[in-house]
Design a protein that fits this description.
Number of helices of chain A: 12
CATH superfamily of chain A: MetI-like
Largest sheet of chain A: none
Largest sheet of chain B: 2 strands, antiparallel
Keywords (chain B): Cell membrane, Membrane, Phosphate transport, Transmembrane, Transmembrane helix, Transport
Strand content of chain B: under 5%
Subcellular location (chain B): Cell membrane
Radius of gyration of chain B: 27 Å
CATH topology of chain A: MetI-like fold
Protein name (chain B): Phosphate transport system permease protein
Mean pLDDT of chain B: 85
Radius of gyration of chain A: 27 Å
CATH architecture of chain A: Orthogonal Bundle
CATH topology of the largest domain in chain B: MetI-like fold
Function (chain B): Part of the binding-protein-dependent transport system for phosphate; probably responsible for the translocation of the substrate across the membrane.
Shape of chain A: extended
CATH class of chain A: Mainly Alpha
Structural class of chain B: mainly alpha
CATH class of the largest domain in chain B: Mainly Alpha
GO molecular function, one term (chain B): phosphate transmembrane transporter activity
Helix content of chain A: over 70%
Low-confidence stretches of chain A: none
Distance between the termini of chain B: 26 Å
Order of helices and strands of chain A: HHHHHHHHHHHH
Largest interface: A-B, 105 and 104 residues
Number of strands of chain A: 0
Number of domains of chain B: 2
Number of strands of chain B: 2
Oligomer: heterodimer
CATH superfamily of the largest domain in chain B: MetI-like
Strand content of chain A: under 5%
Helix content of chain B: 55-70%
Strand order of the largest sheet of chain B: 1-2
CATH architecture of the largest domain in chain B: Orthogonal Bundle
Shape of chain B: flat
Low-confidence stretches of chain B: 1-31
Mean pLDDT of chain A: 89
Distance between the termini of chain A: 61 Å
C-alpha cells in the first residue's frame, strides 16, 4: 500500500491500450531503417562525384593562367594553358539563350495564369510545356540542326547552340514563373483594377514585381541547368582551342565540349584539362545556384 | 469577356475572374451603371485599350508558339527522316545493322538501339524506383522536421551536377570499382542470360550495367521530387485516423500515404523513365561501342538512340546519312513523348493531387 502511494507513475487501473506486438515493432523498425538507408545510399554518389571532381580538378584551377588563357597553340601533351575560351563560350551561349527564353517563358506563364483560364488553348499549352520538359536534349539539338543547318543552310555556330538550349530552358521558366504568379494574391490585382489601371499595366507593374524574386530564382536555376548541357554543343558547334568571340560564325569552345574533346587526349595534360573543365563547370553552376538564393532573399516581397 | 458586368469595369478582370467567383459577385450589385445587354459588340471596343490588346496578343501568341513548337519538332524531324528512310537498304525497324558511311548505300536499323536504350533505362528505373520511394517517404514522413528541407536540397543537388560529369565519373571511377563485382556475377551467374559474358571488355567498365547505375543516380532527383510532392498532400485526416487507431509509423505510411500517393509515384517513375530513355552524354561516354549485336546481357556494350546520335553528330555532313540519325532521333522523340504523356495523364486523372 505504501509503495503504491510512493510510485506516482503507477496507473490506478490496468492500461486500456495493449503494448505493440513484437512483429509490428520489428516491421516498423525495419521500414524506418530501410527509409533512412535509401536516403544515405543516395548521398553516396553525390559525395563521391563531388570528391572526385574536387580531388582531380582542384590543383588545375589554382593556376591563374587557367582563368585567363586559352588552349591556343598548345600541343596535346603540353601542360598549361587555360579554359578562358571555354568559360567564355559556356557563359555567352547560356546568356544568349536566357535573353531569348526569358521573355517567351514569362509571357507563356502570364498567358496561362492571367488570360488562359480553362480554355482549350491553355490546356494544350500546359500539356505541351510538360512534354517540352521531357524532350531529350539530343532531340532538341537535332531539331535545331534540321531547321538551322539543313533548311536554312546556315553553318554550325554558337547561336545555333543557344537556340537548342532555348527549347530546354523555356519549359523550366514557364513552370517556375507560373507557380510564382499563381501565389500573387488576387486582392492586389483587384486593388489595381479598382484604381482604373488596365490589366496589362497591372500585370507589368503589380503582379510581376510581386513575384519577381521567385521568377529570377527560377531563371538562375534554369540557366545553371542549361549550361551543363552537352548534347546541343556536340551537335551544333565545333570545338576551337582558341578564343572566338563571334557568336554567329566559326567554332566556339564551351566547357562540356572541351571535356568531350580532351577525352581523346590520353596524356597527363588531357587528364588535367578534363577534370579542370569539370570542376570549372561545377563551380560556375554552383555560383549561379548561389546567386539564385541571394536574389530570392534580397528581392523577396517585404511582409510586414 | 462575354460577361457584360465585367466588361463595364475598366480593369476587365477577364478570364481569371472566373476563378474568383466570390469576389466578382458583390461587385455586380455595387456596379453603379446597370449592364446594357443590348449594346452591340462593337460598342465595347473603345473600352479595350490598345496596350491591353497588344499584351493579350503577345501572351496568347507565346502560348500558341509552344504548341506550334512541339508540332514543328515532330514535323521537321519527319521531313528530314523520310528521304533517308526511302534510301534505307535494310528494314528500319528490325535490322541490327547501322552503316551510314556510304550515303549511296545506307544500311540502318534500330533494333539494337531500341534494345540497348530500353534495357539501360529499365535497369536504371529498377534501381532508382525503390530508392526514390524510400527517399520520398524519408523526406515527408521520417526526417526530423527542421532537417527535411536541407535534406531535400541535398537530393536536388544531384540534379545540378552536369550529366557529362556523371559520365566521366561513371567511366573513370565507378567502372573500375564495379569490375570485381561484375566479374563475380559473370563467373557465378553467367548461365543466366542477363549476367552472361558480354560483347565488350568488362574490365573497361563500359557496360549496360555501369550505364544503368549512373543513369539511376541521375533520375533519382526527378522521381523523388514528384513523389514527395504527392506524398505531402496525403490528407491529414487519414494520417491522424490511422494514428488514433494505434497504427505504428510504418502502418500509417502503408495504410494512408502509399495508397494515396501510388498513382503519383507511378507517374513520377514514368517521368524518370522518360529522362532515362533520353539521357545522352553520360551514356555516350560510358558505353563501349560493340561490334557484335546486343545479346541481352548486362555486360554488353552498344549504343542507345541518344548516344549513337551524339557520337556521330560532329560528322554529320551528308544530309542522307544525317537523315538516318534524325530518323533515330524521331523514334526517341516519339518514345519519350508517349512515356511523358502517359505520366501526365495518370496524374491528370487524380483531382486530389491538385
Amino acid at each position: 500500500m505504501s509503495t503504491n502511494l510512493a510510485d506516482p507513475t503507477r496507473l490506478a487501473t490496468p492500461p486500456t491500450f495493449q503494448s505493440v506486438s513484437l512483429s509490428r515493432r520489428i516491421k516498423n523498425g525495419l521500414a524506418t531503417g530501410l527509409v533512412w538507408g535509401a536516403f544515405l545510399i543516395a548521398i553516396i554518389p553525390l559525395v563521391w562525384v563531388l570528391y572526385t571532381v574536387l580531388q582531380r580538378g582542384f590543383p588545375v584551377i589554382l593556376d591563374g593562367d587557367w582563368w585567363q588563357k586559352s588552349m591556343s597553340g598548345l600541343l596535346a601533351r603540353q601542360q598549361g594553358g587555360g579554359a578562358y575560351h571555354a568559360i567564355y563560350g559556356t557563359l555567352v551561349q547560356g546568356l544568349v539563350c536566357a535573353v531569348i527564353s526569358v521573355p517567351i517563358g514569362i509571357m507563356v506563364a502570364i498567358y496561362l495564369v492571367e488570360y488562359g483560364g480553362r480554355s482549350r488553348l491553355a490546356k494544350s499549352t500546359t500539356f505541351m510545356v510538360d512534354i517540352l520538359t521531357g524532350v531529350p536534349s539530343i532531340v532538341a539539338a537535332l531539331f535545331v540542326y534540321t531547321v538551322w543547318i539543313t533548311y536554312f543552310g546556315l553553318g554550325r555556330s554558337a547561336l545555333a547552340v543557344s537556340l537548342a538550349l532555348v527549347l530546354l530552358m523555356v519549359p523550366v521558366i514557364v513552370r517556375t514563373t507560373e507557380e510564382m504568379l499563381k501565389i500573387v494574391p488576387d486582392e492586389l490585382r483587384e486593388a489595381s483594377y479598382a484604381l482604373g489601371i488596365p490589366k496589362w499595366k497591372t500585370i507589368v507593374k503589380i503582379v510581376i514585381p510581386t513575384a519577381l524574386s521567385g521568377i529570377l530564382t527560377g531563371i538562375m536555376l534554369a540557366l545553371a541547368r542549361v549550361m551543363g548541357e552537352t548534347a546541343p554543343v556536340l551537335v551544333l558547334a565545333a570545338y576551337a582551342p582558341f578564343i572566338n568571340y563571334n557568336l554567329f560564325d566559326g567554332p566556339m569552345a564551351s566547357l562540356p565540349l572541351m571535356m568531350v574533346n580532351e577525352r581523346n587526349n590520353p596524356t597527363q595534360a588531357g587528364f588535367e584539362r578534363i577534370w579542370g573543365a569539370a570542376i570549372t563547370l561545377v563551380v560556375l553552376i554552383t555560383l549561379f545556384n548561389l546567386l539564385a538564393t541571394v536574389i530570392s532573399r534580397a528581392l523577396a516581397p517585404k511582409t510586414k | 469577356m462575354n460577361d457584360p458586368v465585367v466588361a463595364k469595369r475598366p480593369a476587365r478582370s477577364g478570364a481569371s475572374g472566373a476563378e474568383r467567383g466570390v469576389a466578382a459577385a458583390p461587385t455586380a450589385s455595387e456596379a453603379p451603371i446597370p449592364p446594357t445587354p443590348e449594346a452591340p459588340e462593337t460598342a465595347k471596343a473603345p473600352h479595350v485599350r490598345p496596350g491591353d490588346r497588344i499584351f493579350r496578343g503577345l501572351a496568347t501568341g507565346s502560348g500558341v508558339f509552344i504548341v506550334v513548337l512541339i508540332g514543328a519538332i515532330g514535323l521537321f524531324l519527319i521531313l528530314q527522316a523520310i528521304p533517308s528512310l526511302g534510301l534505307d537498304n535494310v528494314n528500319f525497324l528490325t535490322s541490327r545493322e547501322w552503316n551510314t558511311t556510304d550515303p549511296a548505300n545506307l544500311r540502318f536499323g534500330i533494333l539494337d538501339l531500341t534494345l540497348v536504350t530500353v534495357v539501360v533505362a529499365l535497369v536504371a528505373l529498377l534501381i532508382a524506383m525503390p530508392i526514390a520511394l524510400g527517399i520520398a517517404l524519408f523526406l515527408t514522413q521520417y526526417a526530423p522536421r527542421n532537417l527535411a528541407r536541407p535534406f531535400a536540397y541535398v537530393i536536388d543537388l544531384l540534379a545540378a551536377v552536369p550529366s557529362i560529369v556523371f559520365g566521366l565519373w561513371g567511366l573513370f571511377v565507378l567502372g573500375p570499382v564495379l569490375y570485381p563485382f561484375s566479374e563475380w556475377l559473370i563467373e557465378n551467374l553467367g548461365w543466366f542470360p542477363l549476367f552472361a559474358k558480354g560483347n565488350v571488355n568488362v574490365q573497361l567498365g563500359g557496360t549496360v550495367f555501369t550505364a544503368g547505375i549512373v543513369v539511376a543516380v541521375m533520375i533519382l532527383p526527378i522521381i523523388t521530387a514528384v513523389s514527395r510532392e504527392v506524398f505531402e498532400r496525403t490528407p491529414t485526416m487519414h494520417v491522424e485516423g490511422a494514428i488514433a487507431l494505434g497504427a505504428t509509423k510504418w502502418e500509417v505510411v502503408r495504410t494512408t500515404v502509399l495508397p494515396f500517393g501510388k498513382a503519383g509515384y507511378v507517374s513520377a517513375s514514368m517521368l524518370g523513365l522518360g529522362r532515362a530513355l533520353g539521357e545522352t552524354i553520360a551514356v555516350a561516354i560510358i558505353l563501349s561501342t560493340a561490334t557484335a549485336s546486343f545479346g541481352w546481357s548486362l555486360f554488353d556494350g552498344g549504343s542507345t538512340f541518344a548516344s549513337k546520335i551524339a557520337l556521330a553528330a560532329p560528322e554529320f555532313n551528308d544530309p542522307r546519312s544525317a537523315g538516318a540519325y534524325i530518323a533515330a532521333g524521331l523514334v526517341l522523340f516519339v518514345l519519350t513523348f508517349v512515356v511523358n504523356a502517359i505520366a501526365r495523364s495518370i496524374v491528370a486523372g487524380h483531382k486530389e493531387y491538385e
